[in-house]
Design a protein that fits this description.
By secondary structure, this protein is an alpha+beta fold. The protein has four helices and nine strands; from the N terminus they run E-E-H-E-E-E-E-H-E-E-E-H-H. It is globular and about 40 Å long. About 30% of the residues are buried.
Length: about 170
């Protein structure tokens, strides 16, 4: 199977498992399945942004404010988020699930588990070691830099929605 054609759990509107299908089939049929993403920030509050490699099958060359992918069969959102962080950015962390929602942007509708992890500044420049097959560039952006980038750069369909909801969630926290 290629990166798009992996086994996922088809779920219903309440995020209950209905069965196992290929991700390609879930996308083609518009069936809900689970995707886990993580917003990475550092001790100073900067957000990690990356540009997808030109070789990836989905959204090549576009920027993202989150890293992630489909949850495999039997994987929790947290397990999928942690796996994707290692696979794509070399970050070993336990991302914290913030919220889930049905996301209708992107290739097809899916349940999206949005996580956050803090990558300490003390870890240094080697904290992020991206897979060159997945990530062409990465950088830590301040709030104003990210605001400008979101207006000027081409981001994946999920990025704007995820970041809008992420900021609303963070603002609502005491």
């Amino acid at each position: 199977m290629d990166a798009v054609d992996e086994w996922v759990e088809r779920v219903d509107g309440q995020d209950r498992v209905l069965g196992v299908v290929s991700r390609r089939e879930a996308i083609r049929e518009g069936w809900l399945h689970r995707v886990a993403v993580t917003v990475c920030r550092d001790d100073r509050g900067r957000i990690l942004v990356h540009r997808r490699s030109e070789q990836v099958s989905r959204f090549p060359g576009l920027y993202e404010v989150e890293v992630g992918g489909a949850a495999h069969v039997g994987e929790s959102y947290e397990q999928a988020a942690a796996r994707e962080l290692v696979e794509e950015l070399g970050i070993r962390a336990l991302p914290r699930l913030l919220f889930t929602f049905i996301n209708r942007s992107g290739l097809s509708p899916h349940w999206l588990g949005v996580h956050e992890t803090v990558v300490p500044d003390a870890v240094g420049p080697d904290a992020v070691v991206p897979d060159p097959d997945e990530v062409a560039w990465h950088g830590w952006l301040t709030g104003p830099e990210l605001d400008s980038a979101l207006l000027e750069w081409r981001f994946t369909p999920d990025s704007h929605e995820v970041f809008r909801r992420y900021l609303a969630f963070r603002t609502a926290q005491p």
